[in-house]
Design brief:
alpha/beta, Rossmann fold, Conserved Hypothetical Protein Ylqf, Chain: A, domain 2, six-stranded mixed β-sheet, two-stranded antiparallel ribbon, extended, nucleus, Guanine nucleotide-binding protein-like 3, acetylation, GTP-binding, G_CP_dom
């Protein structure tokens, strides 16, 4: 008998019900759109890449490719290291006859070993800077001393200039960088004052576009008169090219100066490529770097001058990268503020009149929205802000040259004439005049008048470098107590040489003698074998965290 077909239920519904469902669906979709809008765009934005109009595009793309390759190599190396560790663990599990070493002994020995190794490798980085700076001066035929146009006299180092003069037949040329941050009248006055002693070039390095994250803050606070192009490049090229013709052979040009005057930026502007590292922070260049400009001229970059601690607090604050560590931020910023015109500072930072520096930092913190927990103004943060703006490349201030010209004590008339021989000074004057016309500087009323402290004393010889301050020593002891494995990254090469010579084996034996005076022979032998195997495989292995 055939089974009767069941009648399908009808999908028809009343219009009231259908419209109600459609309304609910529309409300649901609207709600989803609102939530998505609050969360932001789900679809990732496409990387626009480097625009064709950007300078140094090829160099940026090349660096991005190299960075990508380095990351891939690092991942592969980490993967291989993990595989090796797993193989070692499997071997230990499969061979139970081999007793594992005493964990506590290994940990204690690792700490002693790293501590002794750090002591062997520790050196004052300032001594290394002195050596590198001497190498730059010895290798150079012409030395460019870069000065910040806002305080040219404060950027001159008499000790270093004297060392350059005594080192042989070398020429010294002054370069007035950041010349767009001071009024034109002041720039002309300083040029007329400095060229009486040494050949002087007006220069304005192009803005760095490599480290966008570091330079963003500076661009936001930058004054509207800052231009993008390099100024003074042709004048410097002609000066060096003319001297090379009279010199008769390939020319080595060294670039020296105090921190944050724009030494590396000048080299990048001459090369028209991002060769040297530049940034807002002081003292980025730590080693000697040779950059060929063309077949006949090679330029050498090096570390900055080391500031003597006998200078005034204002000079230390402006010229030393460690001034915030040596002095307190409020003291360093107060020293700068004491030599600036108070009325112009009030107009520049748009704060009310103040009686002392502490009141100014309080007003500046309130103005810039720098607050601590509880709503109190962050005075230390405001002091650091003033210090960073004053030592950076955004704030326009200027100093008047001395009213009467007198020859510097370390120079005499014969030295001045010798330094000017071989240079076409008439052509240099024409190029400087053209550069001053091309620069669009700030108005005199919108800049801050600053009282210069005169020439800044520097340290040339390693023996003259003072010992570390007690505060710095205490800080280093605390860091060593927390982690014995943290050593200075700048001394890795020194550590490797010491390891190759086998100088670290004596601390190994001493550590074992101290740690195991009464231990059993079995524990000592197993732990010793384990650690020596680790040392042979990788000298930089972290013992203290192996079995933690």
């Amino acid at each position: 008998m055939k089974r009767p077909k069941l009648k399908k239920a009808s999908k028809r519904m009343t219009c009231h019900k259908r419209y109600k469902i459609q309304k609910k669906v529309r409300e649901h979709h609207r709600k989803l759109r609102k939530e998505a809008k609050k969360r932001g765009r789900k679809k990732p934005r496409k990387d626009p890449g480097v625009p064709n109009s950007a300078p140094f595009k090829e160099a940026l793309l090349r660096e991005a490719e190299l960075r990508k390759q380095r990351l891939e190599e690092l991942k592969q190396q980490q993967k291989l290291d993990r595989q090796k560790e797993q193989e070692k663990k499997r071997k230990l599990e499969t061979n139970p006859s081999v007793a594992p070493p005493n964990v506590e002994l290994v940990k204690e020995f690792g700490q002693c070993y790293a501590k002794n190794k750090a002591k062997l490798g520790k050196q004052n980085p300032k001594k290394l800077y002195c050596r590198e700076l001497k190498k730059v001066i010895e290798a150079s035929d012409v030395v460019l001393e870069v000065l910040d146009a806002r305080d040219p006299l404060g950027c001159r180092c008499p000790q270093m200039e004297e060392a350059i003069i005594k080192s042989g037949q070398k020429k010294l040329v002054l370069v007035l960088n950041k010349s767009d941050l001071i009024p034109k009248e002041n720039l002309e006055n300083w040029l007329n004052y400095l060229k009486k002693e040494l050949p002087t070039v007006v220069f304005r390095a192009s803005i760095n576009r490599k480290d966008k994250g570091k330079m963003t803050k500076v661009r936001r606070k930058a004054a509207p008169f800052k231009s993008e192009a390099c100024v003074g490049k042709e004048g410097l090229w002609k000066l060096l090219g003319g001297f090379r013709e009279t010199f008769g052979k390939a020319l080595q040009v060294g670039v020296v100066g105090f921190p944050n005057v724009g030494k590396s930026s000048i080299i990048n502007s001459l090369k028209q490529e991002q060769i040297c590292n530049v940034g807002v922070s002081m003292g980025l260049t730590r080693n000697m770097q040779v950059v060929p400009l063309d077949k006949q001229i090679t330029i050498i970059d090096g570390p900055s001058f080391i500031v003597s601690p006998l200078n005034s607090p204002a000079a230390l604050s402006l010229r030393s990268p460690a001034s915030i560590e040596i002095l307190k931020p409020v003291e360093a910023a107060s020293a700068i503020l004491s030599q600036a015109d108070a009325r112009q500072v009030v107009l520049k930072f748009t704060v009310p009149d103040f009686k002392n520096s502490l009141e100014f930092f309080t007003l500046l913190a309130q103005r810039r929205g720098l607050h601590q927990k509880g709503g109190s103004p962050n005075v230390e943060g405001a002091a650091k802000l003033l210090w960073s703006e004053w030592t950076g490349g955004s704030l326009g201030y200027y100093c008047h040259p001395p009213t009467s010209w007198t020859l510097s004590p370390h120079l005499n008339e014969s030295i001045v004439t010798d330094m000017k021989l071989g240079f076409n000074l008439e052509e240099l004057d024409k190029n400087n005049a053209h550069s001053i016309q091309a620069i669009r500087g700030p108005r005199l009323a919108s800049s801050i008048l600053f009282q210069s402290s005169g020439m800044t004393n520097g340290i040339v010889e390693e023996r003259d470098i003072p010992e570390e301050l007690p505060k710095q020593k205490e800080r280093k002891k605390e860091e060593e107590g927390e982690d014995y494995e943290n050593t200075d990254s700048d001394q890795e090469s020194v550590d490797e040489e010491a390891d190759e010579e086998g100088s670290d084996m004596s601390p190994v034996k001493e550590a074992w003698e101290v740690l195991l005076p009464e231990e059993s022979q079995a524990d000592e032998q197993s732990a010793r074998c384990f650690i020596l195997d680790r040392m042979n495989e990788d000298d930089a292995y972290d013992f203290s965290t192996d079995y933690v």
